[in-house]
Design a protein that fits this description.
single chain, alpha/beta, GMP Synthetase, Chain A, domain 3, 2 domains, 5-stranded mixed sheet, 9 strands
Length: 271
């Protein structure tokens, strides 16, 4: 566990130089960040806080609010690459420990510069194609709850270079189930209703994508979604020219996206 306040004042690489060369350290150790020291204090006899946190990570397949595990060796490689990245944030409230958003580490200085909330982390998982499960919750025109359970996701990022201009297009497709519909006047199997429901879910996701892209480009000026890696693969010569100042170049790049969510099942709500 690393203190966010400490990483605000010191670069992360310097903090870990004492740990990484140690032969007794486990390179598979999970790295998390937190503002509160109480996150590693247990209120229950016999409970080991570190194992409790590891158990939360294992629930990644249930929600997109949990990031893929960041272990020491993986973190060392990312820091050496100079890329900006995020670390899972841990909070403590009412004697309970939970994951809540992510800390942004700017690659050029390896320091904490801000945070993303849980909705931002979810949106990032769609962009990176690392969705393991979870739901999208929204409301219909009557204000009634609709919930889409994710079955599978396919994300493609296409980079485009025109002269000095770099742009990206994100295509997201997903199949899922309508697991919650509080509007009893609508028939879940009706084609018109399903098309409308898909539109509500797609708009909800688009709003989340816009929000996190705005934060990356306009607020923090960092690429923590892997757009640079796509450019490196698809346009290696261009990447060589911009990689040293990539966060700044990324902040000026145009990003467009389209979303296609398909409801393929209605659960027991159709009965």
């Amino acid at each position: 566990m690393i203190s966010s306040e400490l990483v605000r004042r010191m670069d992360l690489d310097s903090l870990l130089k004492f740990i990484l060369p140690d032969n007794d350290i486990r390179p598979s150790c999970l790295v998390l960040i937190s503002k509160a020291s109480e996150t590693l204090i247990s209120n229950q006899a016999g409970e080991i806080p570190a194992l409790h946190l590891k158990g939360i990570v294992d629930n990644q397949f249930r929600t997109n609010k949990i990031l893929p595990p960041m272990i020491l060796t993986k973190l060392d490689g990312i820091m050496n690459s100079g890329a900006s990245f995020i670390l899972q944030n841990v909070v403590s409230a009412k004697k309970e420990v939970a994951f809540a958003g992510a800390a942004i580490i700017k690659g050029k200085i390896n320091r904490w510069i801000g945070t993303l909330d849980e909705e931002d982390v979810e949106a990032l998982s769609w962009i990176t194609g690392k969705v393991k499960g979870g739901v999208i919750k929204t409301y219909d025109k009557s204000g009634e709850v609709l919930t889409y359970e994710i079955e599978n996701v396919n994300t493609k990022i296409k980079s485009k270079v025109q002269g000095q201009d770099i742009s990206f297009h994100v295509s997201i497709e997903s199949d899922g189930r309508l697991i919650e519909n509080w509007n009893t006047s609508e028939v879940p199997t009706d084609d018109k209703f399903l098309k409308e429901a898909q539109g509500y879910f797609e708009q909800e996701l688009k709003d989340s994508l816009y929000k996190v892209i705005h934060k990356m480009q306009e607020v923090y000026h960092v690429d923590v979604a892997g757009f640079g890696n796509r450019l490196r693969i698809q346009h290696p010569k261009v990447w060589k020219k911009v990689e040293k100042e990539w966060d700044e170049t990324f902040s000026q790049s145009e990003i467009t996206y389209d979303v296609n969510l398909n409801i393929i099942d209605y659960g027991s709500s159709a009965k």
